[in-house]
Structures are given as structure tokens and as C-alpha cells.
């Protein structure tokens, strides 16, 4: 994951979405913003420019909208303590992604993990232009909407793939739930635990504790 790609992605999305609230921020709007960010990265880079994942969670009074490109993941803990996936990882081995890559004339191969063209371990991203030009890696987000009144969530975890390489959804929810009185401590602790479990990848974690459907605490 390219650090410059992360900075451009964060700057572009944060400026575009600042001051907007659902339903003003629509699924089409998020899709167009991802496309615009991809063009921004292209305009400021060489073809060798690295890419980045992007995970966005937008909270309104009654709905949570989550957009994802790549293999970062969101997971929510509902009122019954269940782990509810908020996003779908974009991995080359998934049947839908594998078929799309094949239709584009690409291939996947195994080199420690399944990779597009033997290079990239995720099938969608922002940036990664050598693969974008081949149309085997795309920037299109999956966008899901959740009813907060129905779920009555306790908290959600937004994290890069480094966490999910070490923890299942259910394990992560149990770990944070036991430390929910101090979400910041819980987020730091699960990062360290992922490292101790041997995760070699970068690990970024945000824990959002729901006070109610409209007020949250971020850590």
C-alpha cells in the first residue's frame, strides 16, 4: 500500500465529503468520488505509482453507509454481540473477481498468496496503474447500507488487512468488546496482538463506539 496514495486518497475524500451528511452523500456520489481520486492519483504520478485501499463509513441518524475498495474491512458488533461484516474484501481468488479478471484478459497466480498478474494481492484498488491500464484491477467500490435501528450497534471496527490476517471477525469483536470501556486502549491492544501473532503487514485499526444511533466515539 503506497503511503503517497494513502495521503492523496485521504485528502481528496475528506475535502469532498466535508460538511456533507447522508442522504446528501449518495452511493453514486461515493462512486464518482472514487473515480475522481483515481484520476487525481494518475495526474500526479508515473505509471509505477503504488496503490492504496479505501474504506469509508458514513453515519447518519438511522443509517450507516460503507464503501470499500480493496482488502481493508469493516465489522460491526450488534446488540446481541454478533460480528456483522460491513464490507467485502476484494481478493483475486473470489469467484466473481476471478471471472472479471479473466474476462479482462488477465490471470491470477499463487506466490505466497493469490495475486493479480502475479503482482497484487487484491483485485481492486486506487492507483496501481500498470494493472489499471490492463483493466484487471479496478477502482469500483462496493457500497452497502445498514439500518442502525435494527442493528442497535455497540461498536464497529475499521481496519486494514493486517488485522484481518491475524484475527477473524468474531475474534476481533470479542477482543474489543472486552475492552470497550477504553476503545483507544482496545484499538492499540489489538494492533499489538496482531503483531505478536506474526502479522508482517501494516496494521491500522479504528474502533468507533456507538453511544446511540447519532452520537459516536472514535478511537
From TrEMBL:
<dbReference type="InterPro" id="IPR015655">
    <property type="entry name" value="PP2C"/>
</dbReference>
<dbReference type="InterPro" id="IPR036457">
    <property type="entry name" value="PPM-type-like_dom_sf"/>
</dbReference>
<dbReference type="GO" id="GO:0004722">
    <property type="term" value="F:protein serine/threonine phosphatase activity"/>
</dbReference>
<protein>
    <recommendedName>
        <fullName>PPM-type phosphatase domain-containing protein</fullName>
    </recommendedName>
</protein>
<feature type="domain" description="PPM-type phosphatase">
    <location>
        <begin position="1"/>
        <end position="210"/>
    </location>
</feature>
<dbReference type="InterPro" id="IPR001932">
    <property type="entry name" value="PPM-type_phosphatase-like_dom"/>
</dbReference>
<dbReference type="Pfam" id="PF00481">
    <property type="entry name" value="PP2C"/>
</dbReference>
